[in-house]
Amino acid sequence: MATLGRREFTKGALAIGALAWLPAGARSAEADPKKGGVLAYATVSGPGGLDPHVSSSAVELEVIHNLFEPLVSLDNQNATKPMLAASVAVSDDSKTYTFQLRHGVKFHNGAEMTAADVQASIERYGLVSPNKGNLADVDRYETPDPYTFVIHLKEPNVVLLDVMKAPIFPFMILPASQKDKPSRGIDVIGTGPFKLDEWVKDSHLVIKRFDDYTPDLGSPGRDGYAGRKTVYLDAVNYRFMPEATTRIAALQTDEAQLAGSIPFELRDQIESRPELAIRQVFPLGGTYVIVNSQYGLTANRAIRQAIGTAIDIGEISEAVGGINKPNPWMSYPNTPYYPGADTPAPWYDGKSADKAKALLQKAGYNNEKLIIETNSNYQWMRSTMLVVAEQLKAAGMNVDVRIVDWTTNASHMQQGSGEWNLSTTLFGPEHILGPQQWRPLIYAFSNIKGNDALDADYKAFFAEPDLNKRRDIWVKIQQEVLGGGYMIKIADTGRLSGYAKKLKGQSDYAGILQLWDIWLA
Amino acid sequence: MWRLISYRVLQAAPVVLIVSILAFFLINLLPGDPAVVIAGDQATPEAIAAVRHNLGLDRPLIEQLGIWFWHLLQGNFGASLMLNQSVLSAMVERLPVTLSLTMLSLLITLPIGVLAGAVAAYYRRTWIDSAIMSLALLGVSAPAFWIAILSIIVFSVGLRWFPTGGYAPFLSDPLLWLRSLVLPAAMLSLFQIGFLARMTRSSMLDVLSQDYVRTARAKGLGEWRTVGKHAFRNALILIVTAIGILLSTAIGGSVVIEQVFALPGVGRLVVQGILARDYPLVQGVMLIYGFAFVLINLAVDLIYTLADPRVRYD
């Protein structure tokens, strides 16, 4: 049996090297944190709900991760680290996971968290969460004492902890009283360092410091989503401001000290002020052209591969602007499943209209219409697809660009409905969390059906206990998905936020907004 | 009078019914799926299907319409999919913001618009008329979105007279309430002042050329009395009609203004509802708005009788 404690996790060798752009520990050199003050955060929109078990929206998760905590979480290096658990032991057959809980952890209602709460939370997750499929192999739960929680699986699952540490659809622990609450119907009670104070939909949401918060004293300091969390701010006021100009104006007038989602072209309005600064959050995700493998032209593998050959990543990045770094893979560099810069990726950045033309001819292309669908909501998506359209026209394709709204566009991609061949989207945490997190998205977005090679590779992946071998299988999967033209990787991308320089102590960790360990000078 | 009101309210029933059916089918005809919005951008088809089933969206459209009407008969407007609260309470929460904004905007619009139009008519074909009408044209033509952002840069960031956005309820801080609304209301008024000034000018010009105005002047009545009392009173019918239209456009215009100034009003709610394909919310708001527009028209008709005693409905 292997044990994951505060400092290390050996099972599955998930401990990984430091991310190049993340100083370890991440506490900046700014000394003398000051307690007190209310941080006003100008954000694009407010959450629809605060039920962690059903939430994958970044807007909701930005609040949720400050109110709730899971058993295990991502540390600063994106490895698994216990949060509400003190340690995790995994049996040799990977069928039994035993979580020892930290003692004395309080919920916002004052009650102590015990194994009964953990079991109730995980059981609720299994009922309401769209991600509940990851618990399909659970045989039973067990709580031998108030501080021990055991998951017994029917089948070995070497990546269960990777699933449980995911920041989307997070496995947050709620009081047992919430077990039967319907989806989005919970009382907002967590164990996190902040608790909900006031929420006026469409206007603002206030969270305030939870003074009875039980920090993880076994950690030296904050560590990704985990570690010892110290709250200096009295409260944080999320102000929902849909217009970027209004958010920037709020920052300029000190009505807000932090503003999210700053368009790249407006960064000068912040950087030109001595009291303000820009923060780059990178990598936020990877951008992809999605190819519908079940519709018309692009059902033909050779046509899909020809399309990939015509794509010039540099041109797209230039048109889109912002922070983009080329990366042919579906994992970020320095994450456990990254294949390495030397692994060949011949499908990436082909930028050859002539080669694409020849491949199209060979594939029997006869000027049939290729439909590109994009949307009016996100400029980067529109710009991306307009450039792709021109690149494909240069390769001799008959291209029809259709612009719909994002809801329609997303529905078509996620459900394989509508008439389209190419579209685009951004994927986020999957690049950190790995192939198990990618699987449903790969199949859904590219509308993959009946691909025996891919099915076999994934089956082998879940059965393989050795990380190095799993990484090799992941390379094969990507060769099939990207090389087979189901998706075309564009780049890893980031986003900008603006802040007042008096806001100190921000972490360089590129995760969802964390409001602990920061203060107003 | 009461008979008229009852009759007109009853007349509104089929209008509201048609509006509600149209609202239902129009929002449902839109491509896109609320389950996708709720389940998240990266949810799997299984997760989306589960959400669809939980929300009852996998039932036939006619069955959904029937259920909606059945609930409406019981006074239940349904529950918003994205907010997880009843449509009625979501609207009631946001109504004070939109009402404050539109009423304050009308308070700014009415005196300025009417006075500008009347002065332009009185000084017709002079530089005063040209100046007022040019400004009115500018007000009508300038995109609300652009002018609102410009106003934030000038009055909030530059001069620091007003907050950049947000709303303070009247009961919690009346002064802050006023400060938070003056700029958005003024920006909302720009279009309306231009529109009302042009309507008033046109109406006044028509009246000022009438025989009875000439007669009034011929018998030595002062200009103030001639224009202010006789001419203006007769021009009022068109002005009242214009105000009715303005109220409707103010509600429509508030959508953009609420978005730019981050005001949590009904307009912003509707935009979010449409983007999220929140069927019950959009249907409910359209139904209530439809009824409100019927009431506004009724109010305009009743005001006619006050403005012009010759107008009678009995």
Largest sheet of chain A: 9 strands, mixed
Total of domains of chain A: 2
CATH class designation of the largest domain in chain A: Alpha Beta
Helix content of chain B: over 70%
Topology, number of strands of chain A: 22
The interface involving the most residues is between:
A-B, 52 and 50 residues
Calculate the mean pLDDT score of chain B and round it. Answer: 86
Report the order of strands and helices of chain B: HHHHHHHHHHHH
Distance between the termini of chain A: 47 Å
Query: What's the CATH H-level homologous superfamily of the largest domain in chain A?
Result: Periplasmic binding protein-like II
Question: What is the overall pLDDT average of chain A?
Answer: 90
Helical run tally of chain A: 14
Question: What is the structural class of chain B?
Answer: mainly alpha
Strand count, sense and barrel status of the largest sheet of chain B are: none
Overall geometric form of chain A: globular
Using only C-alpha atoms, the radius of gyration of chain B works out to 24 Å
| Second CATH tier, the architecture of the domain at 91-307 in chain B | Orthogonal Bundle
The protein's oligomeric status is heterodimer
The outline of chain B comes out as globular
Uncertain ranges of chain A? 7-29
Counted beta strands of chain B: 0
From the structure above, extract its key features.
heterodimer, A: 521 residues, alpha+beta, D-Maltodextrin-Binding Protein, domain 2, Dipeptide-binding Protein, domain 3, 9-stranded mixed sheet, 5-stranded antiparallel sheet, 14 helices, 22 strands, 26% helix, globular, B: 314 residues, mainly alpha, MetI-like fold, 12 helices
